[in-house]
Design a protein that fits this description.
heterotrimer, A alpha+beta, B alpha/beta, C alpha/beta, B: alpha/beta, 2 domains, 7-stranded mixed β-sheet, 7 helices, C: alpha/beta, Rossmann fold, 6-stranded mixed β-sheet, 11 helices, globular
Chain lengths: ~375, ~290, ~280
């Protein structure tokens, strides 16, 4: 067989894409509906929205379907879509006191003003496979929903807001004060960096750090936070408060300047109380903060632990090294680079072969030339 | 055709909605990237940080080169895309497909016809001229990464010209192996000042950067850095007086297809006989020679 | 002969500083920690001269500030106050307070004109680089670009410091403590520095090894007419190497003069205590 210059690259790629699409169709099951993914795999959708850095549950569901469940690919699809979206403006900053809570707990105190609201969580389920789910029917679901809502008291009043545990601690002088550090080298006086508009440089402003963490890959964040918990770090965290709920999205009218509510986003917020220090006088507890899209408690807690760990004056372990953490937590960057090794590298390798062959020649020549000198 | 006319024409076509801006990237992003390119050209070899946008192609697969190309490209440009020197290689084919879809520019495999050449890991064999731009895809923009993992530290080293450790690395190589073993990504000094990573081109291609007529722009999307070598800039590989820079050795070999003895060759393992066969890496050039 | 190195009013504080520690009365000092603001005054108002071909000793116990002083001279710490002049320095062409140079300039100056040997060889050497490479680093930074010439110079220095040349390509982590110190010395001398700083270089070595290293230093100083600053808590080392000595306590110089005089006839009570405590 004579050598044929490889020219069929385009065709090969197209066929590969078609084969990939074929993979999820080859069975007999009915095609998944976006609504099914959005409603029933909601935690997966939440995770993908967080890592894709775009709050759009239906698009996330579509991405999950298109990527056949690969969360890194799905998040990538969202990010790429996000790039095409025009930037209309920024929301009005708000605090999470305004959150419409569905879950709110504190590990620091047994009871808290407003109460420990467990909300929807799998934390206390027994991890036994539920085989009844195999034949789940619409009728059974409907009956379950009726039974649940039927037991609720219509008169029960819910507080509009719940006080922040952190604020209570702050009032008592037990927690560090919030401080705004100015961004160095900024011409206009803005108080936050926008990492989608400028590259990270180190040391990074805390706003840049939190933004990077917020769109970080859940597994990577968990790995680094876990290393801190286990001993490669000394944060000694206690969850001051964990909240899951809906934050209002408010923007200013472009001409009239009035604030308008345009929707709400589900977020998870973790505030971690960490070991105290006395930098600047009186010793106080320090704080780690984490916030991400959707219900993703592992991510929010890991974020908070890493946020605190990276504030260490002298990094002793990888999770305390801000440059190490922020350079490696973006899932889109890491998966892209990992995958890129599959691209042809034969020219590079040819160069390596040349070097090795030469080095081997030199080695052989040296062996012949010089007799072994006795070591001293 | 001017860009204005191109956009007007598209607006008039009812059946073909303009779902994206020309070149995919929004105009504000292009503006920033162009400014960063200008800064890079003004400071040869210096890595300019930029707000790298996400693209439908994965990080690590050429998003830096793409952002540079898409920020500069106009409807009248003629584009050539190569990967490992080959127009048909998978990465090249993919990128060409994308750029054509978002710009409709003409493409070519002829180095001399192209106004913009985007490349991964090779510089074309035929010398490029003034008026042409070479865009190189860069995985590792930092030449000093081999001796220092921290970005904060390497930025300081560049600022202060503190390159002792890089030279030490080369010295140790010579002590251990009798010569410098770096194969691709061979570090160079640009304009007598910055040490730069020329991207994973083989040593064969490094001399082409010195006093070149064309403009070379390097894009690292994942690492978010752009750097450039303006035309007629000195680019010198790091070497010692008694251990000079050496390119890959192809003596005794030539391309089986076109007979060339002076091109970078791909080594193919012939599955029938187990022997090695050699072909030009630059397939466009090889084709030309065959047709001549 | 005029001094070629002059230091005046060199001070270093770790901490914010306050009224109390800024105006501390020197005669009543009991430690270098400020009672009101917890600032540590590591060095206060240190002044001295160094002449060509002279060896100055700095002696004191832990916390005396002697190592801080060396780190200040080597630009490893930013001084809080003071001036540092080196005559004949080729850097700026005119007399310049070296402490006010930019970090870039300081690095360049240090690389070209200073050599330092630390107590801990890990501080002064790259353990995963060959010993020849360690010596070569300064030459490479100064622009040497010929491997044979570099190796020649490195071999010469290894010879001078009594290290077998055959071990030039081995990393110093394989060497004994005494040999590692000698590699440090070779490295420090590689660029023909104007001034050599030695910070507790024999502390922790076996006595016989210590003697050999000290002998070597003495010989090199004599042969090469080195100007040196020797820091040690060991009076014997100071006596052996230094013509003049400064005694430091809590960051202040309490006594200085000819080594013989300071050792035989100490004036300050603390110096008297030190000298009488010698075994």
């Amino acid at each position: 067989m004579g050598y044929v210059a490889v020219k069929g690259g385009t065709e090969a790629i197209e066929n590969a894409c078609r084969l990939f699409a074929f993979e999820h169709m080859k069975g007999d099951s009915a095609p998944l509906k976006i609504q099914q993914i959005h409603e029933q795999l909601f935690l997966l959708v939440d995770r993908v929205m967080g890592e894709g850095a775009l709050y759009a549950p239906d698009l996330a569901a579509l991405a999950i379907k298109q990527a056949a469940g690969d969360t890194l690919e799905a998040a990538f699809l969202l990010r790429a879509y996000r790039t095409t979206m025009p930037r209309i403006g920024y929301t009005i900053p708000c605090t999470t006191e305004k959150m419409r809570i569905i879950r709110r707990i504190s590990a620091a105190f047994k009871d808290i003003p407003g109460g420990q609201i467990l909300g929807p969580t799998s934390d206390y389920t027994l991890r036994l496979l539920d085989f009844d789910l195999i034949d789940e029917s619409v009728q059974e679901s409907a009956a379950f929903k009726r039974a649940l809502t039927g037991t609720l008291s219509q008169d029960a009043t819910l507080p509009d807001t719940f006080p922040k545990i952190i604020d209570i601690l702050r009032q008592e002088g037990l927690l560090v004060e919030t401080k705004k550090t100015p961004i160095p080298h900024e011409e206009k006086s803005s108080s936050i960096v926008d990492i989608t508009r400028e590259a990270l440089t180190f040391p990074a402003h805390r706003s840049a750090s939190l933004q990077s963490l917020a769109r970080g890959e859940t597994g990577g964040l968990l790995l680094l936070a876990y290393s801190s918990m286990r001993g490669y770090g000394n944060v000694h965290p206690t969850i001051g408060e964990l909240r899951v709920g809906y934050l209002p999205v408010m923007i200013r009218h472009p001409y009239k300047g009035e604030a308008h509510l345009v929707g709400e986003v589900k977020v998870t917020e973790a505030e971690v109380i960490a070991r105290y220090d006395d930098a600047g006088g009186k010793p106080r507890f320090t704080l780690g903060y984490g916030l991400c899209f959707g219900q993703n408690e592992i991510k929010a807690i890991s974020m908070a632990i890493l946020d605190r760990a990276m504030q260490a004056a002298e990094p002793q372990s990888p999770c305390e090294d801000q440059e190490f953490v922020l350079s490696h937590i973006d899932g889109i960057e890491s998966m892209g680079f990992c995958n890129h090794w599959k691209l042809p590298h034969y020219v590079d390798f040819q160069s390596d072969l040349d070097r090795l062959r030469k080095a081997q020649t030199i080695h052989e020549t040296q062996k012949l030339d010089t007799p072994k000198t006795p070591s001293e | 055709m001017k860009l204005k006319n191109w956009i007007l024409q598209r607006h008039h076509q009812n059946d073909d909605q303009l779902l994206y801006t020309f070149g995919y990237i929004d105009e504000m992003a292009k503006k920033e990237i162009r400014r960063k390119i200008l800064k890079a050209v003004a400071i040869p070899g210096y890595q300019v940080p930029f707000g790298s946008r996400e693209l439908p192609i994965a990080r690590g697969w050429g998003t830096g080169g793409l952002q540079v190309t898409l920020s500069m490209i106009l409807p009248e440009d003629v584009l050539k895309i190569i990967d490992q020197g080959c127009d048909g290689s998978v990465n090249a084919a993919n990128i060409r497909k994308f750029i054509q879809a978002v710009t409709s520019v003409d493409t070519t495999t002829d180095t001399n016809e192209a106004t913009i050449i985007q490349t991964r890991h090779r510089i074309p064999e035929e010398p490029m001229g003034s008026g042409q731009i070479l865009v190189l895809q860069v995985p590792y923009p930092e030449a000093l990464r081999e001796v220092e993992p921290s970005e904060a530290a390497t930025r300081r080293m560049h600022a202060e010209g503190d390159y002792g450790r890089m030279w030490l690395y080369l010295y140790e190589d010579i002590v251990r192996y009798g010569e410098i073993t770096i194969s691709y990504r061979y570090p160079v000094v640009v304009n007598g000042k910055y040490i730069m990573d020329p991207s994973p081109i083989p040593r064969w291609d490094v001399p082409k950067l010195n006093m070149a007529e064309m403009l070379c722009i390097f894009g690292a999307g994942r690492e978010k850095r752009i750097y450039a070598i303006p035309p007629y800039t000195k680019v010198e590989p790091l070497e010692f007086e008694d251990h000079p820079f050496r390119v890959e050795d192809f003596t005794g070999r030539n391309c089986e297809r076109c007979g060339a003895k002076d091109t970078y060759l791909d080594e193919i393992i012939d599955d029938e006989t187990g022997n090695r066969r050699y072909f030009c890496s630059d397939t466009g050039y090889c084709d030309k020679r065959c047709q001549a | 002969m005029k001094p070629f190195l002059q230091v005046r009013g060199l001070s270093k504080r770790f901490g914010k500083g306050c009224e109390t520690c800024n105006h501390a009365d020197l005669s009543e000092i009991e430690n270098n920690l400020c009672p009101s603001c917890s600032t540590v005054t590591a060095c206060l108002n240190v002044s001295f001269d160094l002449h060509p071909d002279e060896v100055l000793g700095i002696v004191g116990e832990s916390g005396s500030g002697k190592s801080t002083l060396v780190k200040l001279l080597h630009f490893e710490y930013e001084a809080s106050a003071g001036t540092f002049f080196l005559n004949g320095n080729h850097f700026a062409g005119e007399r310049q307070n070296l402490l006010t140079l930019s970090s870039f300039q300081k690095r360049q100056f240090r690389s070209r004109h200073m050599g330092i040997v630390y107590q801990n060889p890990h501080a002064g050497l790259r353990m995963n680089i060959s010993s020849g490479g360690n010596i070569a680093e300064k030459l490479l930074a100064a622009g040497w670009r010929n491997v044979s010439q570099i190796r020649s110079r490195a071999a010469g220095l290894l010879d001078q410091t009594e290290i077998p040349i055959g071990r030039m390509d081995e990393p110093p982590r394989n060497f004994s403590g005494g040999m590692q110190q000698r590699v440090q010395i070779a490295k420090a001398l590689s660029n023909n520095p104007q001034i050599l700083l030695l910070d507790e270089v024999t502390t922790g070595l076996d006595l016989s090894v210590q003697a050999k290293v000290l002998d070597l230093i003495r010989r090199l100083q004599h042969e090469l007419h080195l100007s040196m600053i020797v820091v040690s808590h060991d009076l014997g080392v100071i006596r052996l190497l230094c013509q003049r000595t400064m005694v430091m306590r809590y960051g202040r110089v309490v006594e200085s003069g000819l080594t013989d005089q300071v050792m035989e006839d100490p004036q300050h009570p603390y110096t008297q205590l030190l000298v009488s405590s010698q075994l």
